[in-house]
Design a protein that fits this description.
It is built from twelve helices and eight strands. With about 300 residues, it is α/β, with parallel strands linked by helices. The chain has a single domain, classed as Alpha-Beta Barrel (TIM Barrel).
Length: about 300
């Protein structure tokens, strides 16, 4: 059903934008199938994601049940840390592309949780249409993905996100309250989704958003990146209207804010259609979180929890 909605929206877009999105939607699945020649579950297994058929287990038990087949956590930590910057806990944004950001503008970061879901392609369409018509104010966002939602359609969605200049973020594998998990399970929840995202963007680590925004010292210690909270909550998941979502963002806007939205709600898509042009008219540019950090000269550290990135 949601693909029909996406196709309808796409036909309302300009020719160049339609071509761009059709290339992402049609050819990435073909590329992925030709290169991997695996069924979806075989692909997930190849990058460390195994399923369990034991439906009687609770979610923490299901994850714990995978420990026996998962690489030794101590060995994994040692080997991965050798590939990561170990001399500093600072999140490195030196290679983040800000060439299309006008730093004289007020910057605000948009984020979307619980992806991939049924409106992700529609979100792409809104951004692509806006960016084609506003090359002087190209918009981006950070999308936080849950590994358990991945299926055979996910790879081309991730590639499309990257092609649009979006940032891929880690929302853990199972969307479980991280404060209730053991340290070993915490690592698995974070690492498994990082592996899935890495297969597309080649980045070793991704900004983390804790489900429900719940963290404690154990979560902070387990995080290999900054933990991104928010300063503006649209509450779109509660079923509010597009007008209410728009008002929550526009009435609380400020430079350096991080906005929380969710994939899966048509009202959010409708609000975006108004927010992007209206924020531009008010002197804002919508960016992703790492772009906001770099453009504003902020220092985010591993395990730190951040709700905004104000200009230094």
């Amino acid at each position: 059903m949601y693909k029909k909605v996406f196709l309808t929206n796409t036909f309302s877009m300009s020719k160049l934008s339609r071509v761009f999105l059709w290339i992402s939607v049609l050819f990435y699945p073909l590329f992925f199938c030709v290169c991997s020649a695996r069924r979806p579950q075989e692909h997930l297994s190849s990058i460390g994601v195994e399923s369990t058929n034991d439906s009687a287990l609770s979610l923490p038990e299901k994850i714990e049940n995978e420990l026996s087949s998962y690489p030794s956590l101590s060995e994994n930590s040692s080997s991965e840390s050798s590939d990561l910057p170990t001399t500093s806990d600072v999140w490195d944004v030196s290679t983040v592309d800000i060439s299309k950001i006008d730093r004289t503008k007020k910057l605000i970061a948009f984020t979307f949780d619980d992806s991939p879901s049924r409106t992700l392609e529609n979100i792409f369409a809104v951004f692509a249409d806006f960016n084609e018509n506003n090359p002087d104010c190209v918009a981006s966002s950070t999308v936080f993905f849950n590994g358990y939602l991945f299926d055979e359609s996910t790879p081309h969605l991730l590639h499309a996100a990257c092609a649009l200049g979006f940032e891929l973020g880690n929302h853990t594998y199972s969307h479980y309250d991280l404060t209730t998990l053991t340290s070993d399970v915490l690592r698995i929840e974070i690492d498994k989704t990082d592996k899935l995202l890495r297969s597309v963007d080649k980045k070793e680590r991704h900004l983390l958003r804790a489900p429900f925004g719940k963290t404690n010292e154990a979560v902070k210690k387990a995080a290999a990146t900054p933990i991104i909270d928010w300063s503006i909550d649209t509450l779109d998941w509660t079923g509010v209207s597009a007008d209410e979502i728009y008002d929550r963002v526009f009435s609380h806007r400020y430079s350096g804010a991080i906005v929380l939205m969710h994939d899966g709600y048509e009202a959010t898509v409708d609000a975006l259609k108004r927010l992007l042009p209206d924020l531009k008219a008010d002197g804002y540019q919508v960016v992703n979180v790492s772009q906001l950090i770099r453009a504003h000269g902020c220092i985010f550290k591993r395990g730190g929890v951040y709700i905004q990135a104000k200009k230094r």
